[in-house]
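ingest -> validate -> predict -> emit
validate: passed (alphabet ok, no gaps, 213 aa)
predict: started
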Amino acid sequence: MTQPGSATGERAPRAPRRDRRAGRVALLMIDLINDFSFPGGKDLHDRALGTLDAIRNLRDAVEAAGGVVIYVNDNFGEWHSDQSRLVEGAIAKGSVVARELRPRAEDYFIIKPQFSGFYATNLQVLLPKLGANRLILAGTATDICVLFTAADAHMRDYDLWVPSDACVAEADDRHRWALEIMAQSMGAETKPTSRLGVSEWLDRLSASSEGAC
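emit:
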């Protein structure tokens, strides 16, 4: 029998009942399960194809560091939808991005109704239970859902890295100014994965925390 949140019949991932000690990293995969069937969607899809290697490498590195992967996905107006329906629907409509980044059994999946991954979702409950206070944001679009999620994470005092090569917008200038806002107003790291690795970023945060004590 298929468990809730699982499209494969495998057991869905579970979080502990009580919050874990903070210090863990989570990769938030934002709106990557997407059929891109909206004005400008084809161009955005084609741009997102260029992020696939960076995102897959991030996913592997986060898991190697003992972290977790959480898909944070819009319901696209389908209020009775679930993970399986969103995934299969996007792939059926030809989304290469959804096919290549399809969630695995061990990944968490949060459905959001608006731009921010925190708004009216269980994300703000799940992260403390997983002990995740260090967030890496990847996905679409840099200037909308990634930006709004970063802002809400910043207000909740999460450490943030938004790799410039792991997110994308419909236009390069919108991508750049969104990254600039996140860097300057939210203190987010925005270096691409070619210049910064997960372990290096985590080591910097740990060193910074120790220095502040």
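The domain at 24-212 is CATH 3.40.50.850 (Rossmann fold).
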